[in-house]
Every structure is written in structure tokens, then in C-alpha cells.
Design brief:
The protein is globular, with a radius of gyration of 20 Å. It contains six helices and 17 strands. It is α+β, with helices and mostly antiparallel strands. It has an eight-stranded antiparallel sheet with strand order 10-11-12-16-15-14-13-17. It has a seven-stranded mixed sheet with strand order 4-5-6-3-2-1-7, sandwiched between helices. Strands 8-9 form a two-stranded antiparallel sheet.
Length: about 290
């Protein structure tokens, strides 16, 4: 008896699933992998431009956007892509796919990347979702008490909140975002992109930019450390924390079977332990 290939999880799929993390919120699945932000949402509508625009109003698309398809998917779909450069040097691309599900509904996907596009991963991911092959352990609880950090469970208590997939903020203990990558190059590109984005901000100024030796998840490596001064700034970011100086670390390093990009930060009025880091950062990194 032959088993249809669409129902099989290949070794390549398994590796993608091992890097993938997700949150389900208000009918939308949010994912993070390889520095790529992904969403998926299902609607009981026909696959045509008019229905898609109306059914996925949150995406703010127009019917004229939905004229192309992706033939390599092998089933009915509609495809659209847009890119914007903001700030200079960072090209953010959002690819939109609307595919016919097995039960004749429409699954809408967005893939948001910076300075790269991985169409092969997009097709692989769409097939996994369409065939209901995303395992439940990929999804995190909205009520945050622990995180899966690149394969290691870290208990955080009840003082932290999700700011996005793989993006955790703990009041007075610090904040960090991370992504699990297939290659070191991808992880390095991700933290470099975040550095450029932060540096281009028009609030505050960088007063220090150095490289320091750290131990990150047991691996000796280097981290880029910048200190951002918000003195005199009354914007939302500084106002909410009450702090005036933000220390940010950028790390891209091998962790267990993959590579991790991680950006960590804390304010001057956060709790800072004897090791020079806030409690959240100390969960994964030590200064040498």
C-alpha cells in the first residue's frame, strides 16, 4: 500500500520543526524560525481575490495585488510580495500566500524577512500547515511561565510577558528576542539586521559600542554590546521603563544542534546582579 507523500514528514521537515516556535492568539498562528516572522490564518471562503481581500481585512490588500500564483506549490493558490527599505540598507519583504486547504477553505500566510527570501522554506512550511503536520509542542502558552530556548526549557515565573514569538520581556529583569537558525550565516545576519535597525532609531543615541567575551549557553563567544542613552527622551519606550540608559547585547552562536541569534537588553533601573547582567540575561549568558 502506498502512502501519499504529502502525509510524510521528511528529515528536512523535521529539522525545520525543531527550529520552529509558535503562539496562537485570536485565531491567528504566529511563528518564528530562521529569523523569519510567519503568520497563518484559515477562513471559510472561496479562493478568489474579492473574497480574500474581504476575509483577510487585517492584511490591507487590494484585489489588484492578487493576480499571481506560485506554481511550484502544486495546488490552487494566490501569491503577492512587497518590499520596502526602511531604514536604509534593510529591505523588509512580506510574501503573502493564500492557498486552498484540503477541505476547500483558504489558508492565508505571511512571511516577513529582512534582506533575504527563502521560497523553498516557504513552500515547505505551507505544506506542513496545509497537511496539519505542525506538532502541538511547537506552540507556547499565552500565559508565560517558561520558554523553550533552542531546546532547553527555562522557568521564568510569572513576571514575564510575550512581546512576540521568541520575544520575552520581564519587568525589571530584562528583555530578549531570539531565533533558531539552520546556519551560522543566517544567525549572524539576523543580529546584524537588528543592530542596523536599532542604530537607525531617531530617539536616544549610542554612547558605547564594544565587543565583549561571553559564555552563551555554555559556548565561549563574543557579543556586541551597545549602550543607548535616552536622557531627555520622553517617548513611549523610555517612559514605560523609567530608565534612561539601555544596554543591548547581540549574539550569534552555535547552540546544541543549531545556531541562535539573540538580542538581549536591560535598563539602568532594572535589577542588575553581581555578574553585571539582569536576571533574565543571566539565564543564558555570562560575562567573562
Amino acid at each position: 500500500m502506498l502512502i501519499p507523500s504529502v502525509c510524510l514528514v521528511t528529515a528536512q521537515d523535521t529539522d525545520l520543526l525543531n527550529r520552529l516556535q509558535a503562539i496562537h492568539n485570536r485565531g491567528i498562528d504566529f511563528y518564528n524560525v530562521d529569523g523569519i516572522e510567519i503568520t497563518s490564518e484559515i477562513k471559510d471562503i472561496p479562493l478568489n481575490a474579492k473574497s480574500i481581500v474581504k476575509g483577510f481585512k487585517n492584511l490591507k490588500l487590494k484585489e489588484k495585488d492578487l493576480t499571481a500564483t506560485e506554481p511550484l506549490l502544486g495546488f490552487p493558490n494566490s501569491y503577492f510580495s512587497k518590499t520596502e527599505e526602511k531604514p536604509a540598507g534593510l529591505h523588509t519583504t512580506t510574501d503573502y500566500y493564500f492557498v486552498e486547504s484540503i477541505d476547500k477553505k483558504v489558508i492565508g500566510f505571511t512571511f516577513t524577512t529582512v534582506n533575504k527570501t527563502d521560497n523553498e522554506l516557504q513552500r515547505e512550511f505551507i505544506n506542513l500547515v496545509r497537511n496539519n503536520l505542525i506538532p502541538s509542542n511547537v506552540y507556547n502558552k499565552l500565559q508565560l511561565d517558561s520558554i523553550n530556548f533552542a531546546g532547553r526549557k527555562i522557568l521564568l515565573g510569572n513576571s514575564c510577558a510575550w512581546m512576540g514569538v521568541n520575544n520575552v520581556q520581564c519587568r525589571f529583569y530584562g528583555q530578549m528576542n531570539w531565533s533558531v537558525h539552520k546556519t551560522q550565516e543566517s544567525a549572524t545576519q539576523s543580529v546584524n539586521n537588528q543592530y542596523v535597525s536599532i542604530s537607525a532609531g531617531n530617539k536616544g543615541k549610542i554612547v558605547s559600542d564594544t565587543t565583549v567575551s561571553v559564555i552563551f549557553e555554555g559556548v565561549e563567544t563574543n557579543a556586541r554590546r551597545i549602550m543607548y542613552d535616552f536622557t531627555g527622551v520622553t517617548g513611549l519606550l523610555a517612559g514605560m521603563s523609567g530608565g534612561k540608559n539601555l544596554t543591548i547585547y547581540f549574539v550569534a552562536a552555535p547552540v546544541r544542534d543549531h545556531y541562535v541569534s539573540c538580542v538581549m537588553s536591560f535598563w539602568n533601573n532594572d535589577q542588575i546582579n553581581a555578574g553585571g547582567l539582569s536576571p533574565l540575561l543571566e539565564q543564558i549568558m555570562k560575562l567573562r
